[in-house]
Amino acid sequence: MAERTWHSLPEYEALRALMESGTTSKAAVRLGLSQSAISRSISSLEARLGRILFERDSGRLRPTSEATQLNKRLDPLFEALERIDGPPEPAQETLRLVAPPTYAHRFLVHHIATFLTANPHFFVSLEVSSSDEVIQSIQKERFDLGLTGVELSREGVTLTPYRVSRAVCAMQEDHPLAKQETIRPQDLHDQRLIALSHRHARRAQLDKVLVNARSVPHVVAEVSTSFAAVDLVREGLGITVVNPFPVAQYRSNEVTFRAFASPIEYRSYFVTSETRPTPAIARAFMRHLRLHTVKTPFTEKA
Q1: I want to staple 128 with a disulfide (CB 3.0 to 4.6 A). Which of 93, 104, 147, 299 is the partner?
Q2: What mean pLDDT comes out for the span 193-218?
Q3: Is 145 helix (H, G, I), strand (E, B) or coil?
Q4: How far apart are CA 76 and CA 184, in angstroms?
């Protein structure tokens, strides 16, 4: 059986100190030992390895190539010791975030970037889903935090109000209605209207408002998100009635937004699990959003 190799950390420390300081006296001061203790460690290491590690040159110790190579091989060992003795590295926490496209594609990506810049030891995983899937995902505890603009109260989830918005009309700056500060339902009569699809509860609410005002716009397109509706407005297709949050802050320089005189109100919510505590990283991200969400004329804190 081959003889087992053993290692002595004090010998390696003496070698490293002597390599870096150049003299036994300085190495002794560095390690808090006597010069003789340094010399004994080096002699013991040379005897164990069967190699000459230092040669005397005009009263100074000059490391041999064997000493230089050994010192280099010891780098990983001392780097590991520094990690053990040094301050603990913060554990990387992960935020599992889920949101519908209206929030995810433009709004959340910016805030995720600023959040991670301020907290480099955090990690965020973003999933884009429908509002109904957001609720289901939190129910099943697949995600830590969700955002939604639909009040879908379900068992097992908590909806925390985040923003409150009033309905607005979006139009091009040269549209005749842009001269008005507030758009009334009857003003939409015979206007080219881009509407949300019928699967949205807000579509039925808008239809009721228009019927009560005896206003019959010409619906030229239906879309599933407010961003798509406003983008079609920008293309000159017509006018639309939408939730201004967060679309207004991204399209305010390209289209004009006007208050819409109606009872239509929108609420945005944080979605968390009702059955388990909200992780600290999720609470931190909620604080980050509340603090850094840009103020707009049509939206306020909930």
Answers
A1: 104
A2: 93
A3: strand
A4: 73
- Give CB contacts under 8 A, 24+ apart, made by 246-254: 246/102, 246/103, 246/106, 246/107, 246/293, 247/102, 247/170, 248/168, 248/296, 248/298, 248/299, 249/294, 249/296, 250/106, 250/107, 251/170, 251/227, 252/296
Residue 90 has pLDDT above 70, yes or no: no
Residue 91 pLDDT level (bands cut at 50, 70, 90) = low
- Please state the rounded mean pLDDT for residues 98-103: 92
Q: Is residue 163 within 8 Å of residue 268, measured between CB atoms? A: yes
- For residue 103 the two structure tokens come to 């929030």
| Contacts of 97 by beta carbon, 8 Å cutoff, 6+ apart | 108, 112, 124, 125, 126, 127, 143, 144, 145, 146, 147, 285
Domains present along the chain, CATH in parentheses: 9-85 (1.10.10.10), 93-164+267-301 (3.40.190.10), 168-263 (3.40.190.10)
Confidence category of residue 2, pLDDT binned at 50, 70, 90? very low
- Write the single-letter amino acid at 206: L
End-to-end CA distance of the chain: give it in Å, rounded. 76
Neighbours of 6 (CB within 10 A): 6
SS3 content of the chain, % helix, strand, coil (to 5): 45, 25, 30
Nearest to 63 by CA among 46, 44, 47: 46
Residues 240, 245, 251, 252, CA torsion sign: positive
Given a cut of 50, whether residue 167 has pLDDT beyond it is yes
C-alpha Rg value of the chain to the nearest Å: 34
pLDDT at 59: 64
Q: What band does 6 get if pLDDT is binned at 50, 70 and 90?
A: low
β-bridge pairing 256-260 and 168-171: antiparallel
- The pTM score is 0.66
